[in-house]
Amino acid sequence: MHTSVTLTAEEFKLIHNGLCRLRSTTEILSNVLNTKVLDRLLAAQKNIEVGLKNAYKQEDQDYTEKSDHYEAIKADRGFKSDWSVFSVADLLQPHKYTGTKNLIYRSHWGAGEIVVPVEGQSWVDLWTAADKAINASGDDHHIFVEGFKVEGDNLELRTGS
């Protein structure tokens, strides 16, 4: 092949997961298969690994850039929570949940439902509301902001540990 290809994140994920399954299967069958067959599987596995080397490097760079951005905002704003929505590259950009009024936090170890107004249209404004809700919950374990679910003109906060 003499062309450059671009993979979507989903395609990359599928290939990566396929490679992981190939590694696992090859390891399981290593004492069962004929040596020539095993060598062919290992060679195919190595080809995929070499082919994905640059993609893994790009993924690592993207992760590092986003993590550095998130950590800088966390430090600047004094947040106690951590941002884990890695599909968002720039927290200062407008979020996709226009028209939402409140952030609702139910899934926590604290008592009751917590409602915090969403003040602003950027991703960092959502994080601000999420951080307030997490702090109000008293739950020091589930501090990772992992997503939001639209409920009318409100957002339900999804967290993890």
Spans of at least 5 consecutive residues with low confidence: none
Query: Helical region count?
Result: 3
Gross geometry: elongated
The neighbouring-strand order within the major sheet is: 1-4-5-2-3
Q: Quick check: average pLDDT?
A: 93
Number of separate domains? 2
Structural class: alpha/beta
What is the N-to-C succession of helices and strands? HHEEEHEE
% residues in beta strands: 15-25%
| Helix content range | 40-55%
Q: Please give the number of β-strands.
A: 5
Largest sheet: 5 strands, mixed
Provide an overview of this structure:
With 161 residues, the chain is an alpha/beta fold. The chain folds into 2 domains: 9-77; 82-160, no CATH class. Helix content is 49%, strand content 16%. The chain has a 5-stranded mixed sheet with strand order 1-4-5-2-3. A hairpin with a 2-residue loop joins strand 4 and strand 5. It starts with 8 loop residues before the first helix and ends with a strand.
Give the topology.
Elements lengths: L8 H21 L5 H43 L4 E2 L18 E4 L8 E4 L5 H15 L6 E8 L2 E7 L1
Parallel strand pairs: 1-4, 2-5
Antiparallel strand pairs: 2-3, 4-5
Helix pairs in contact: 1-2
